[in-house]
């Protein structure tokens, strides 16, 4: 364990015999301020460039949005037209086919079985015998 | 006449606090930064000197202030500017030390720089000066830093803790061990404190 006055003696010795700090070169301050000035100019340029970029971004975004809106509108209208055309075609098809449909087609397609009468039963029996 | 001369030569901006100067710097006022440089450059030099080659001291000081200027927008106004600046100084010193460790040893640098300290040297004083430099050099970087900041630069322990981002208890502990190592080195060299 060291005594406080030991620490004090060490501090005094170190301060007394520390090497003197070499003075700054005469142009150091000017060099630093020049570097600072250049850095400021660079930063300003950078900020300007980024703000310019931002400015360019606005009209580009608007133009792109308009383009997308126009394209999607055209797509939708095209679909609508197609649908209308398809419906019209279908209607025409149905109308045409309806007219050429034979009047007795129903009877041909779905023949109705004649009701079984007593005479016909007798006929069957006779033929069978 | 002398009073008038002093009044004329004194820059009224010198009375402004660091905080006010920082505010002006943030608006692009480089003149305010010049004042901050003049106010703090000596201590920055003192902190860097024990851990760097004297020939690169000016470059490191420039690096510190340039980093500070660029980092000002991120500087928290609640903190002390000096503490923040010394933190940058310590970072620059660490970077320099890592780079220098790859090329040459610290002792070689010290032996080169020692003879050019004084024009008319007092031999015993020069000898002790050399011992102090060598003693600092043989410490670890952490111990070297803590001795420089506390015992040579007289920065309070609380502020050192903020600069190095360590607890005050760690500062005390490092200081104790750094002093013990330094004392032991000096005793081995025949110095009685």
Gist of the model:
Chain A has 129 residues and is mainly α. Chain A has helices spanning 4-16, 28-100, 105-109, 118-128. Helix content of chain B is 71%, strand content 0%.
Give the SSE layout.
The complex is a heterodimer of chains A (129) and B (193).
Chain A: H1 4-16, H2 28-100, H3 105-109, H4 118-128
Chain B: H1 2-9, H2 18-26, H3 30-48, H4 57-71, H5 81-101, H6 106-113, H7 123-138, H8 141-152, H9 157-164, H10 168-188
Helix pairs in contact in B: 2-3, 3-4, 3-5, 4-5, 5-9, 6-7, 7-10, 8-10, 9-10
Question: Your description of this structure?
Answer:
The complex is a heterodimer of chains A (129) and B (193). The radius of gyration of chain A is 52 Å and the shape is rod-shaped. Chain A has helices spanning 4-16, 28-100, 105-109, 118-128. In chain A, 79% of the residues lie in helices and 0% in strands. The termini of chain A are far apart. Chain A has 129 residues and is an all-alpha fold. Chain B is mostly helical and 193 residues long. Chain B is 71% helix and 0% strand. Chain B has 10 helices and no strands. Chain B has helices at 2-9, 18-26, 30-48, 57-71, 81-101, 106-113, 123-138, 141-152, 157-164, 168-188. The chains are: A mainly alpha (129), B mainly alpha (193). The A-B interface holds A 2, 6-7, 9-11, 13-22, 24-25, 28-29, 31-33, 35-37, 39-40 and B 28, 30, 33-34, 37-38, 41-42, 45-46, 49, 54, 57-58, 61-62, 65-66, 69-70, 113-114, 117-118, 125, 128-129, 131-133, 147, 151-152, 176, 179-180, 182-183, 186, 191, 193.
